[in-house]
Amino acid sequence: MESNGGVDESSLLLRELQSLKTSKRDIEARISVIEAQLQQIQSNQKPSSDCSNGSSDFGHELTPDMIYRYSRQLLLPSFGVQGQSNLLKSSILVIGAGGLGSPALLYLAACGVGRLGMVDHDVVELNNLHRQIIHGEAYIGRSKVESAAAACRSINSTVEVVEHREALRTSNALEIVSKYDIVVDATDNAPSRYLINDCCVLLGKPLVSGAALGLEGQLAVYNYNGGPCYRCLFPTPPPTSACQRCSDSGVLGVVPGVIGCLQALEAIKLASLVGESLSGRMLLFDALSARIRIVKIRGRSSQCEACGENATLTRQQFQQFDYENFTHSPLSAAPLMLKLLTPDSRISSKEYNNVIKNGSPHVLVDVRPSHHYKIVSLPKSLNIPLASLESRLPELSSELKSVQESNETPNDSDVGIYVVCRRGNDSQRAVQLLHRMGFTSAKDIVGGLESWAHDVDHRTCIIITNQKMKMNIGITKSSIIPPSETIADSHLTDLLISFDPNVMKKALADLLVSFYLMAGRLDRAESGRIVINCNGEGVLFVEAELDSSLDDLGEFTPSPKLHRLTPTVDCSGNISSYPLCFAR
Amino acid sequence: MQLTLEFGGGLELLCDSVKIHNVDVDLPAETQKLTMKHLLPWVRSNLIKERPEMFIKGDTVRPGVLVLVNDCDWELSGQLDTTLEDKDVVVFISTLHGG
Ligand SMILES: [Zn+2]
Fold it and tell me: How far is A79 from chain B (nearest CA, A)?
C-alpha cells in the first residue's frame, strides 16, 4: 500500500493515545484513593476540633457528613443511628463480581458498609453486561474487581474498598475470608459454594448465599445463629449434569439482579443487627410466574461433615480438600470437557470434514436443544435433542436407511453416524446411549460446533434471521484475524492499526479481488475512516453461499455509504454474536 | 387424593417443562394413607418424561433436590415417611449454582 506513511503515523498516535489513557486511569484511581483517605482523616478530626468531648456529645460516632449522606435510612425507626453505626463498623466480603455480585456490591457500597471486599479473577466481557450491571463497556477486557471497585468508590468514597483480583481457592480462602465479618456468596458454580461454606464454618462467618439461573433464583443465609450450613442442606453434591451455568443455559439479566439485591439486604441486616435474617429459611424466586416463596428448611444437622457435632473438618484438611473432584466440576467458569468415550469412538472436526469431502455416506445427528439448533447448525444435520434421543431412535433408523438407499451401499452398517453438540459433552453422552442401543458405529465430534467454528479452514453454516426471513449461509472459506495487540477500547478499532498489517493486507486482497465488501461489523469512525468493530476478539472473514438472494437482507442496499446488517448472526464461537463482515 | 405438585430449578424440564401439576393420586390399598415413599414412584412413572435419574436416586430424590411439603423441608416432617393429606402442595426444587 502506498499510504503506509499515514498508517504508521496514525499507528503511533493511537499507541500514544492508548498509553495516555492508561496513565489517566492510574491517576484517577490514585485520586479516588487519596480522596477517600483525606475524607477519612477529615471525618476523624472534625468532631475533636468542633467540640472538645469528641463525638460523644451525639451519643454515636456519625460525622455530620455521614448523617447527611445516610439521612434517609437514619430516619427509619427500625434501622436508625444504631443500625448505621453498626454497619459502618462492619466488613463484608462479596465473592464474585458477576450477575449477583454487581447489584450486591453497588448497594453495599452505597449504604455505608465500613469495609467492602470483592473477590474475582475474571475479566469483563461484552456478554456479561446485560446482567453484570456494575461494569460498563469501557472496562471490557479488564479485571471485574478493578471495574467493580472503581464503581463502588465513585458512589461512596468513604467506604474502604478492598480488591482481591484472584480466584478464591483453598490456599487463599482462609486468609481472605478471616478479614471480614460477613460473606456474600455470589459465585456461579458448585465447587465454589462448598468451598465458601466450609471456609465460613471454619471461621464462624455468616454466609449470605444466592444463586440464579434462567428465570429462577434462590437465596438463604447459612451458618448463622445456630442455623444450618450449606452442607447441612446439601451433604452430597448434585451430579454434574444438574449443575447448569448461565453460559450454557442462559439467564435473564434482571433475575440475578433481584437475588443480588436481596443478598445485599440480608448482609445489611446481619451487619447492622436489625430484623430477622433468612437463616433456616430459603427464598425461591420464579420470575416467569411472578412468585416468591419462602420455605422453612431443616436446622443444623448433627451429622453434617462441616458443622455437625462430630465434624472433624480442620483448617489443614480444608486446605487440602479437592472441591473440584468432590463436585466433579471446575471452580472457574471454564467450560467442562468430559472424556466419556474411547478415542476410537471420537472424531475431530478436521476428520469429519474429510468424511464430507470424501462423500462417505453418513448421518450427522445434532443433539442440542431445538432452540439452539435453530440459531446455528451444520448442513444436512438431523436435530434430535439428547433428552428425546432414546424415544426418537426410529427417526435415526429411517434416516440411515434413506442414506443407505441413495448411496446404494450394501447394508446400513456402512453408513456412519456422527453426533455433534455445542462443546462435545452431550455428544459423548448421546454416543454412549447409541452404543447401548445397538448403534455401535456412532462417533462424536470432539469439541462440538465450537471447535468447528474456530477451525478456520472448514465449512460451517450460519443462519441469519430477521423478523421476516430466514436464510441459510453455507460458508465455503473463512479466516479469523486476531488483533495483533490488546486494545482497550475495542468497539471502534481502526482496521489498519489493530491487526497484523500483513495478515490483514493478504486477507483483504484475497477478498477484494472477486468480492465486494458490503457491511457487517464495518463502521465509520467519527474521523470518517473505515473501522471494524471487533470486540477485541478479531474479525472473521467469510466467503459464503446463500440459499436466497442477498436482496432479501431487507434494509440493506449496497451503496458507498456503510450500513450495518440488521439481522443478527451467531457463529456459535467466541467471536461474539455481532453482525460479521459480510462479503459478496 | 388431590395434590398439587410443583417442579422448579430446572426439574420441570423433566416433565415437559410444566411446573405445576394438579393431580389425583390413588391411596395405596394396604395402608389407606399416602406417604412420600408412595408418591415418589408415582411421580416417577406418571410425570417424569425423561432422564429419571435426574430426579430419583435409589428410593429417594437425587442429591441437590429439595423436597418441600406445604412450604416446609421434608426433613422436618419425616422425609420419606411424611404422610400427605388432601390438597397438600409438594414442591421439588433443584438447587441452582449460577450467578
Ligand atoms: Zn452443616
Answer: 29
Range of the domain at B34: 2-94
Residue A475 cell numbers, joined: 460458508
A506-537 per-position pLDDT tens digit? 554 444 332 333 333 445 555 555 555 544 44
**Whether A534 is catalytic:** no
Annotated active-site residue in A152, A246, A534, A571 = A246
Contacts 24+ apart (CB under 8 A), A387-394: A387/B13, A387/B50, A387/B51, A388/B50, A389/A365, A389/A430, A389/A433, A389/A434, A390/A433, A390/A437, A393/A437
Cα A398 to Cα A420: distance, rounded to the nearest angstrom? 19
Note whether residue B21 is domain-resident: yes
Q: What value does the mean pLDDT take over residues A446-470?
A: 52
pLDDT of residue A557: 35
Residue with cell 465509520: A524
Most B CBs within 10 Å: which of A296, A324, A326, as the mutation test of the B interface? A296
Domains by residue range for chain A, with CATH: 77-327 (3.40.50.720), 343-455 (3.40.250.10), 458-582 (no CATH)
Alpha carbon distance A493, A482 (integer Å): 12
- The distance of B13 to chain A (nearest Cα, Å) reads 9
Who among B50, B94, B98 is closest to A212 (CB)? B98
The confidence score (pLDDT) of residue A463 equals 31
HSE-up (13 A, CA, CB side) for residue A529: 13
Is residue B9 one of the residues assigned to a domain? yes
Lowest mean pLDDT among A120-134, A263-277, A330-344: A330-344
- From chain A, the residues in CB contact with B21 under 8 A are none
Domain assignment present for B34: yes
Which residues from B are below 8 Å from A210, CB to CB?
A: 99
Residues of A in contact with B72 (CB under 8 A): 295-296
> What number is the average pLDDT over the span A329-354?
79
- Look up A246 and say whether it is catalytic: yes
pLDDT of residue A59: 60
Q: For the complex shown, is ipTM > 0.90?
A: yes
Distances, alpha carbon A514 to alpha carbons A498, A508, A509, A511, in Å? 25, 11, 9, 6
- Contact flag A297-B73 (C-beta cutoff 8 Å): yes
Q: Does B37 touch chain A (CB under 8 A)?
A: no
Cβ within 8 Å, pair B98-A298: no
Read off the pLDDT of residues A170-214 as tens digits, 9 standing for 90 and up. 999 999 999 999 999 999 999 999 999 999 999 999 999 999 999
Question: If pLDDT is split at 50, 70 and 90, which confidence band does A246 have?
Answer: low
CA of A100 to the centre of ligand 1 (A): 24
Q: What CATH number has the domain bearing residue B10?
A: 3.10.20.30
Any domain includes B99: no
* Count of domains for chain B: 1
**How high does pLDDT run on average in chain A?**
78
